[in-house]
Each structure stands twice: as structure tokens, then as C-alpha cells.
């Protein structure tokens, strides 16, 4: 596969997301301008100008009409994807570390950073999906995270039942998305949780941590289902959609130590693990700095990674990627093909 | 995939590649439509040697229809915004470039040491090797015999039972007969694996793995260069449980070299497959199947 390099950003990438159909990629970096790209050929669709600080986070709603961005200028903004018009600006006391739309696009959450005198807060806003409509300034829910360490990442589970947060200490917590009540907390990582991404149906999620592991959690029980061990701090992890069963981990040595080693030693590779068997099955290299974010297209046909080096690399998978199967998987498929009745019996 | 990026406008069919400029030379190409939907194009042109040549091509045109989500189609038509406003459609070289080709094949038991792609130093080495015209004695490939992927399963050609080059430490000086019968191949055998090394055999080699491999491994030759391992697997799986399929591929082009190895879990399956698939037509070639030669 020949990666497509997107070089519209002048500084390190912080997050990249795909639209629901996988045709557009939205990227934000520490420069102030979010960009939109066509995934098929890497053409830049446009840029959204207005922010005045480094951007940490971006998300797009399921219909690809609204784009949310947040960053170090203490604002979270809503844009119309098609025209680049700024629809709404929410201002906070500290920077926004993470924003995410709910599954239906009717809610948007923003996580503010904990700083001296300020606590980490989670703000939830009701969103009107019509780009022409007036958006509310009043949050529908505000969770003040007092007792837990700094929140780094957050997201809505299936049907917006829960809000799941990842923390600086490596713990993962679950909140009621209606009342804001803390329901559960598990200590699954030893160091800061850097990323949290959902499975296609949002019933489970993967967390990436500085402790060199990524873990698959159940969204309801927060039970750790699988653990993927790497030899370098992991900044981001993504779950590939059916029918492939992989997870993609991106990371590398911390950005501040990068200049002291060569690109090869820095482990700036996207690592592919089998989701079920937890084995590493391959790597894709190319970046000159740590990978800050990896995202998989919802159709599973391509993935992209944003690096500290300022590049987004878009990879469209080749057939061997889809054909790869473990012997047990092949046997299973054969059995189902040859004896469909056995499967029915079991059901 | 990346083809979208490279597509040059105005080029509709690969068949027109050659004809376009040549057609202007002498009589216009005749195109006749056949009943089965194909077209026959007769072109007359003058070839490199200055001779008049008539070429007849039969072409079938296929229309590839792609279904696309209407939302995606709509978004593709949007006019660009922000810094890109007013710029023409298509990727621009200042923001979008193509990277080097990356070969990514998922493998079971991936280890970071076993690099997926060759490092620059390795490539340099490979270049040097190419210039030296190396031929493997086992598979006739362009690598050293010691680096041959089949050195454990096959004996070098025409070297079935030569005397071993190494000296047997049990009987120094009696080299001609002693080890010769049991160890053809003439390659170096580390002491702990030699005959009579006090039952230490099977240390690293995982017991009788190689024997089993040899017994139920088929060597398939005359394989189409466009074949994939999955094609072969499909063919051979009909005759029993296949444990391994290896298709030798050219490192440069990625195409098959024309031979492959198929291992079965059971020797009787292998024998049956050997009988049935030998002479089977696959991709315009006739497969030749035989048992892989044994080494030890």
C-alpha cells in the first residue's frame, strides 16, 4: 500500500477523525487550523479558521454536517462542515482536552483541563443537528470531577447511557450520562490514559496508556477484556470494524526525547494486534516522530495516523490485510460453510 | 487505492496506449464488433525493425459500476473552503503527496526484529548481490544456497548423496563412508546434532518436525506467476488438511516465481492430492505436483 501524506499542518498533529462514511478526514494540530481532507485521494477540502491556540481535539457528528473542535484558547467551537462557518463558540476557564459527539449527534461533551484553581469538568451540551439553528449556551449537564485525578479523555457509550472517562492516574471511570453520578471506577492502567476509542457499536472501547499497554474494556462493567502489550508508550489505539478483528496502536518515545535517537529506534510505527488473540501481527512505519493519534475508517478500508512530525499518513489496506486469518478462524469458517445446521443447533 | 491520485485524465483504456500514436502512421485501425460482445481491432504499423506488421487484438470492454453512498457523492461535489477556496478539484502537490510503497502483510507471531521491509543497508547489499549473478543450488533462485528458504526441505540439485564436507568427530579420517550414507547434502552439521551425540538430538529442532514435513510436503511447479497462496490453498484443501502453503515470490515484483510447497497434516492426503492435482490446469498453465525431495 502506498500511504498518502497530508502535509497541511505546521505543527504536531493531536487528533484525526473520520466521517461516518469514511470519506472525509478531519485533523487538528498544535497550529490553530483544523483541516478537512478527502480520504480517497488526500485532497484537502478546506480549513476552519478562527481558533487562537493549539488544538487538542476534534469530532464530527454522524451526518457530517457539524464539526466540533476544542483547544488551548479555552474555547470549544462548532462549525458547519460544508461551508466552514463558525456556528457556535463556548468559552471556558481552561483549555478543552477532548470533545465528542454522542452516537446520535444530539449531544456534545467537552472536557476541560485541570489547572491551578480549576477542576476538570465535563460539560454536555444538547446539539441541534440543523446547521442553521441557534445552539444553546447552557450545558445540559456539568460533571465536576473533584475526587478523581485529572480527566484526559471521555466519550459517550452506546445509546448515551454512560459517559466513560480516562484519567491521568490510569484509572477509567463510568458516569451516568443523565444524572452525572459516578457509577464505577477501575484502575486498569499504571500511567496516564492517553486515548479512548469506541468499537463500532460503542459497547466496548479501547484505552491507550503511557504504561505501554492498550486495553479493551466492556462499556457496561468496565471489565478489562483484552490487553495488548507494546514496548513503547502508547498514545492512541483504534479498533478496526468487522469483519477484521484487529486493533491498531500508535505511539513512540515521548516527543521531548525524540531528537536523541534515530527514527528506527524511536519505534514510530503503527502496531497491529489481533483483537482476540492479543498477538502482534505487523507494523507500519513511516512517521519521523511518535504517532499522536490513529483512526480507522468506519468502513474498515483505510486508517490514518497523525504524528508529532506534522504529517497525517492515510493508508488504504491491501488484500493481504483482509485475507489474513488464523488457522482456527479458517477452520471455523469452513465448518460453518460445510455444516450450517451445526451452527443453527448451537443457536 | 492510490490509483485515484495518479489517474491522468483523458486516458480511458489500456489498449489505447500503443495504438494512439501508431494509428496515425498507416491505415486506420479497423474495428469490428463481434457477436459475443468483444471487439476485434486490426492495426497495421511499422515496427522497430522497419517492417510492416499487422496486429489483431480482441478486446472486451467492461463497465465497472461502483455503488456510492449519495451523501459521499454529494460531499465530493462540495466547493472547497477556507485556505483551499477557489482551488481546482484534485489533490494539490503542496499539501498531498504519495509516500513510498509499504508492504504490509499481517503475520502470525510477528517479531519486531523481523522487519517487514528491508532497511537501506539491506537494500544496498541486495543490489550488490544482484550484480554478482548468484544462483542457489537448491531452487535456482538468486540467493546463496545457505539463504535458501528450502534448504531444510530439499537437497541441492544433483547432489543427492555426496560425501559430507565436515569431519565426523567419532571417526576422523574415515570421512568417505561413515557419515555419507546418513547425511547427504554436505552442509555443516553442528556437533550436537551429529549422529551419536549422546541422544542430544532434537534439541532445537523440535523432534521429528522435519521428517513429518518431508513426508507430507508436495512440490508444485509450473504455477502461474499471478497465483496467490490463497488460490493454491483453495485447490489443495479439497484433498485434506493443509498445514502450510509456501509460494515462492520474487522480492522485486511480488509475483510468483512458479513453484510452491504445500504441506499436509497427513501423508495419505498428500499422496492423493499429488495424484489428483498433478496435471490440473490452473491459470492457463498445467500444474506439476510431486513429493518434495527429502534431505535427511
Structural features:
heterodimer, A: 347 residues, mainly beta, Methylamine Dehydrogenase, Chain H, 4-stranded antiparallel sheet, 3 helices, 28 strands, globular, B: 296 residues, alpha+beta, Alpha-Beta Plaits, 3-stranded antiparallel sheet, 7 helices, extended, initiation factor (chain B)
Summary?
The complex is a heterodimer of chains A (347) and B (296). With 347 residues, chain A is mainly beta.
Structural notes for this entry:
The complex is a heterodimer of chains A (347) and B (296). Chain A has three helices and 28 strands. Chain A has 347 residues and is mainly β. In chain A, the strands form seven sheets. Chain A has a four-stranded antiparallel beta sheet with strand order 1-28-27-26, with no helix packed on it. In chain A, strands 2-3-4-5 form a four-stranded antiparallel beta sheet, with no helix packed on it. A four-stranded antiparallel beta sheet of chain A has the order 6-7-8-9, with no helix packed on it. Chain A is globular and about 60 Å long. Chain B has a four-stranded antiparallel beta sheet with strand order 6-7-5-10. Chain B is α+β, with helices and mostly antiparallel strands.
SSE layout and pairing:
The complex is a heterodimer of chains A (347) and B (296).
Chain A: E1 4-6, E2 13-18, E3 24-29, E4 35-38, E5 44-47, E6 55-60, E7 66-71, E8 75-80, E9 86-91, E10 96-101, E11 107-112, E12 120-126, E13 141-145, E14 151-156, E15 162-167, E16 172-176, E17 182-186, E18 193-198, E19 204-209, E20 213-218, E21 224-229, E22 234-239, E23 246-251, E24 269-274, E25 280-285, E26 291-296, E27 302-307, E28 312-316, H1 319-323, H2 327-338, H3 340-346
Chain B: H1 3-6, H2 16-23, E1 30-33, E2 38-46, E3 52-60, H3 70-76, E4 96-98, H4 120-131, H5 209-215, E5 217-221, H6 229-237, E6 242-249, E7 256-264, H7 267-277, E8 281-282, E9 285-286, E10 288-291
Antiparallel strand pairs in B: 1-2, 2-3, 5-7, 5-10, 6-7, 8-9
Amino acid at each position: 500500500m502506498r500511504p498518502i501524506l497530508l502535509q497541511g499542518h505546521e505543527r504536531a498533529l493531536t487528533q484525526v477523525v473520520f466521517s461516518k462514511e469514511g470519506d472525509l478526514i478531519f485533523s487538528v494540530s498544535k497550529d490553530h487550523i483544523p483541516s478537512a481532507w478527502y480520504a480517497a485521494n488526500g485532497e484537502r477540502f478546506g480549513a476552519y479558521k478562527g481558533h487562537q491556540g493549539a488544538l487538542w481535539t476534534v469530532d464530527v457528528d454522524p451526518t457530517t454536517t457539524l464539526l466540533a473542535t476544542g483547544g488551548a484558547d479555552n474555547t470549544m467551537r462548532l462549525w458547519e462542515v460544508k461551508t466552514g462557518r463558525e456556528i457556535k463558540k463556548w468559552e471556558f476557564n481552561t483549555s478543552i482536552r477532548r470533545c465528542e459527539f454522542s452516537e446520535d449527534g444530539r449531544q456534545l461533551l467537552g472536557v476541560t483541563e485541570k489547572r491551578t484553581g480549576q477542576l476538570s469538568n465535563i460539560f454536555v451540551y444538547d446539539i441541534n443537528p440543523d446547521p442553521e439553528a441557534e445552539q444553546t449556551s447552557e450545558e445540559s449537564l456539568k460533571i465536576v470531577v473533584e475526587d478523581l485525578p485529572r480527566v484526559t479523555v471521555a466519550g459517550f457509550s452506546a445509546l448515551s447511557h454512560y459517559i466513560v472517562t480516562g484519567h491521568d492516574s490510569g484509572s477509567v471511570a463510568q458516569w451516568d450520562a443523565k444524572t452525572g453520578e459516578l457509577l464505577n471506577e477501575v484502575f486498569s492502567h499504571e500511567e496516564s490514559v492517553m486515548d479512548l476509542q469506541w468499537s463500532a457499536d460503542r459497547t466496548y472501547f479501547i484505552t491507550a496508556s503511557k504504561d505501554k499497554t492498550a486495553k479493551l474494556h466492556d462499556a457496561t462493567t468496565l471489565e478489562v477484556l483484552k490487553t495488548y502489550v507494546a514496548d513503547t508508550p502508547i498514545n492512541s489505539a483504534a479498533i478496526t470494524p468487522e469483519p477484521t478483528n484487529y486493533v491498531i496502536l500508535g505511539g513512540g518515545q515521548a516527543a521531548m526525547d525524540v531528537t536523541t535517537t534515530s527514527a528506527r529506534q524511536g519505534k514510530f510505527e503503527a502496531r497491529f494486534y489481533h483483537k482476540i488473540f492479543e498477538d502482534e501481527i505487523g507494523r507500519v512505519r513511516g512517521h519521523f516522530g511518535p504517532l499522536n493519534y490513529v483512526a480507522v475508517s468506519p468502513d474498515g478500508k483505510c486508517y490514518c495516523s497523525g504524528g508529532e512530525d506534522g504529517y497525517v499518513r492515510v493508508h488504504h489496506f491491501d488484500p493481504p490485510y483482509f485475507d489474513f486469518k488464523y488457522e482456527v478462524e479458517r477452520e471455523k469458517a469452513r465448518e460453518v460453510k460445510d455444516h450450517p445446521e451445526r451452527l443453527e443447533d448451537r443457536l | 487505492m492510490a490509483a485515484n491520485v495518479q489517474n491522468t485524465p483523458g486516458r480511458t483504456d489500456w489498449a489505447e496506449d500503443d495504438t494512439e500514436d501508431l494509428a496515425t502512421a498507416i491505415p486506420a485501425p479497423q474495428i469490428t464488433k463481434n457477436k459475443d460482445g468483444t471487439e476485434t481491432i486490426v492495426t497495421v504499423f511499422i515496427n522497430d525493425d522497419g517492417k510492416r506488421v499487422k496486429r489483431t487484438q480482441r478486446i472486451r470492454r467492461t463497465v465497472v459500476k461502483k455503488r456510492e453512498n449519495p451523501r459521499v457523492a454529494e460531499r465530493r461535489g462540495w466547493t472547497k473552503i477556507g485556505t483551499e477556496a477557489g482551488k481546482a478539484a484534485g489533490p494539490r502537490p503542496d499539501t498531498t503527496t504519495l509516500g513510498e510503497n509499504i508492504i504490509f502483510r499481517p503475520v502470525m507471531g510477528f517479531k519486531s526484529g523481523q522487519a517487514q521491509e528491508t532497511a537501506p543497508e539491506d537494500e544496498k547489499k541486495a543490489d550488490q548481490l544482484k550484480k554478482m549473478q548468484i544462483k542457489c543450488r537448491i531452487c535456482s533462485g538468486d540467493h546463496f544456497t545457505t539463504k535458501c528458504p528450502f534448504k531444510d526441505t530439499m537437497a541441492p540439485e544433483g547432489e543427492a548423496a555426496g560425501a559430507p564436507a565436515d569431519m565426523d568427530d567419532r571417526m576422523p579420517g574415515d570421512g568417505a563412508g561413515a557419515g555419507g550414507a546418513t547425511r547427504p547434502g554436505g552442509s555443516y552439521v553442528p556437533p550436537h546434532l551429529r549422529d551419536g551425540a549422546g541422544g542430544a538430538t532434537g534439541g532445537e529442532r523440535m523432534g521429528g518436525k522435519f521428517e513429518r514435513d518431508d513426508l507430507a510436503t508436495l512440490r508444485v511447479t509450473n504455477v502461474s506467476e499471478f497465483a496467490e497462496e490463497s488460490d493454491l490453498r483453495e485447490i489443495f484443501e479439497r484433498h485434506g488438511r493443509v498445514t502450510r502453503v509456501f509460494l515462492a515470490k520474487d522480492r522485486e515484483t511480488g509475483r510468483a516465481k512458479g513453484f510452491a510447497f504445500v504441506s499436509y497434516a497427513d501423508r495419505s492426503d498428500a499422496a492423493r492430492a499429488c495424484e489428483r492435482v498433478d496435471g490440473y490446469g490452473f491459470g492457463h498453465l498445467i500444474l506439476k505436483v510431486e513429493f518434495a525431495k527429502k534431505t535427511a
